[in-house]
Each structure stands twice: as C-alpha cells, then as structure tokens.
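Case study 2.
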Amino acid sequence: MSVQSSVPVEKATPASTANAEKWQGRIISLLAISYLLLQIYPGQEMEAVVSVIILGVIVWVMPRIRGSTLTISTVLLLLAVGLMVYYEASVQEWLQAARVNLTLIALFLFVPLLGIPVRTGGYVEALKIVLARSMNEPRFFYIGSKLLTHMLGVVLNIGAVSIVYQLTKASNITSSRLIANALNRGFVTSIYWSPYFSAMALILSQLHITWSSIVLYSLGLVFISTVVSIGLDHSVIRSNEQEQKHREGIRETTDPIHLQKAKRKVIELFILLTLIMGLVLFVERMTSYSMVLIICLVSLIFPLLWCGFSGKAAPLIEQLQQHLDVGIPRMKKEIVLFLIAGFFSGAIVQAELSGYLIEAMNAVFGSFTMGIAFFFSLLIVLTAVVGLHPIVVVTILATSIDPRLIGLSPEYFAVLLLASWGISNTVSPATAVNNLLSHLLKENVLDVSIRWNLKYALIMLMFIPFYLWALNI
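Prediction:
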C-alpha cells in the first residue's frame, strides 16, 4: 500500500525557469570576464583564480544539462579525474588542465555580439528585397543561400544560419533538403578559415602558428567543398526546377525607390563585415596581442561604437540583455562539453598517452603522410557520426600531438584538423548547426546530418589527403 504525500509538488513556472536561465547566463559569462582578466593580469595567482571559476562553472552547470551531452561530459570528466589521480598530477597541473579550452569559450561568448549591428540595422529586410526576384530559381536559391551563409558566417558564426533561413522564406521553394544542405555546408566552410571560430582559436593557440600562414590553403578547401556540394545536390536542384516550371504564381514587384534603398543597405552590410574583419587584422598587425584577444575586444567594443553612432542605443541594450539572459544559457551544453573536453585532453597530456599514439602512427604509416591525414580525418568524422562532438577529438589531437614527431608541419596539421572539423560538422547529430536546422525545418536531426550529408563527407574525406599532398605544406 502506497502513501501519497499531502504536500503539493511545486512545478517550475515560466517565470522561475526564466529567472534560472538568467542566473545561468550571468554565471557562465564569468568565463568571458575571466579570460580578459587573465590576458590583462597574467600570473600564477590569476591563473589559479580563473581555473577555480572554470571548475565551479562545470560543477554548477553540468547538473542542468540533459541528453547525450550530459552522458559524454560525465564519461569524459570521470576519465579525466581518474587519469589525473592515477598519475598523481599536482594541483597546478589540475588547474592548468581546466584552462585548456578557455580561449574557445571566450570566442563562443563574445563573437555573437558582432551580430548586434546586423540585427538592429535592418539589413535582413534589405537582403530579402534585393534577392526576392531570384529566390524562386532553385539554382540561384541554392548557390546564393550557400555563399551568403558562408560570407555572413565568417563573422556572425552560427547566427548566419538563422539569418539566411529567414531570407529563404521569401522564396516559394520549400525543399527542406535543399535549404538544409545549402545552409549547413555554407556554414561549415566558414570553419575552414574564419578567425572568429572556436576551431581556429583552438588550433592556432595549440600549434603556435599564425592565421595568415594557413588562410590561403583553407580558402582552397572552400572552393573544393562548393564544387562537391553543387555536384552532389544537382539532382535535388533539377527536381525543384521542374516543380517551379509547373508552379504558377504572380511575382511581386518592388518599388524602384525601395529597391535602390535596399541595395545601398546591402552594400552597407558588406562594408560593415569587411570593416570588422579589417579591424581585427589591422590590430593584429600593429600590436602583439593574440588573435583571440583582439576578436574578443572587437566583439565587445565595435557594436557599442556602431550602435552609438547610428543612434541605436536602446536596441543595443535590449540585444545585450537578450544575449546574457537567453543566448548564453542556450549554449550551456556546448560550453560545458568544450570545457570538459579541454580538461580531458589536459589529463591525457599529463598521462603522456599521446606518446603511444605517435609511436603507433609512425609504426603503421612511417613517412606516408597521406595515410596519416586520412586516418585522422576518418577518426574525427566517424566519431562525429556516432554522436561525439568534433571538439572532443580535435582538442585531444591538437593539444597532445606534436605534428613534427609524425612527419607533419604545424601548418599541414592545422589545415587537416580544420578541414576534418568542418566536414564532421555536417554529419554530426551533436553539433549546434544540425540541431538548429532540425528545429527550424521540423526535420529529424539524423536526416539533416547523416542521411543528407554522409556522401558529401566521404567524398571530402577522400579529397583532403590529395589536396594536402598537392600543397606540399
């Protein structure tokens, strides 16, 4: 016989949930502040304080995430703690391991602020007006959406996917596969070369190379990816072209004056994006600051100046509040996973397990660098297919392997990891872009990721070793 409690169970109200998310945003934002403080006041005391804050965020946020991310994070954390205890790591080594991926988190938290001028400047509506006449042509729709997502994604990161998705609503093309593939592959190719992505921050900081030393090689991958993508989706584009021929409708005409205003607005948008990129490169050239620190400072200061001079102070405050109270809490899964992946890779370094991997690679492949490239790419992509976020494997490889010990230059290894990260993003059901597209298009995440992109990922996997061999980096 069971006895039911007479005390009513309190359910979380929308107000209490919103309040909890606000606190999550504020606590997680301490990581961004910690990164800046560590750059301004370097030293062992500050490093210790920042490491404690990171560990505190992990302990506080982890119980508030669910699903496969919680499972993966828990397993990695337990393995990391086990390795650190078994190999009797010092307190200093524990704290150092906690900071491995702090630069990634800083970018993750700061870069979305660069989207504020775009969202408050009326640029999305201007793009809709300018592109409206051609958005019903499937080939232009696909290529245009892909390239626009890529160009916006270079600065706006995953925010570009949401913006271009809104633009696709101006078209009567409703093929989920066409939309998802264009936006997905347009976005992931930004990972290959954009300095604003966490992937680039991790690889540059760990391999101790400059962005300018690999950017041209990475841009070549963007071209190859675009050609492969269009070729694979040619049949889907043709199918939509046939549907459009049988679909009758009256195209809306835009007032010439409004069209001219919209064109000027679009030009202004690309001037804005160019200005942001140019400002980062200029400061990097003129100072000794790291690329990550410059991007964080530009992400923080540029929107303030832009909105201030354009008289949009009120929308700026609203957007900042939105980012703190809603945007950051939505990223808590990725943030916790990134932090724990860094901690785990730090534990592997302390355990010196990478030495066994280097010995195995040299024994199996010797000087056959194409084989090494294919092995690492395949490892990253296959683990992504089974649901492991690419950040985990790439962090381990970037932080624990000296590429020179397996016959690779740091630049070669960097391009390899960036390309593999980008490819794996298309097929991983754990990445933010696939889950976002799944939500927007009301499609199964396995369709958006594996089913629609596996062939693309495999073809790109075959291209990478030959491309790197041809470059002779």
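Residues 103 and 201 are 7 Å apart (CA to CA).
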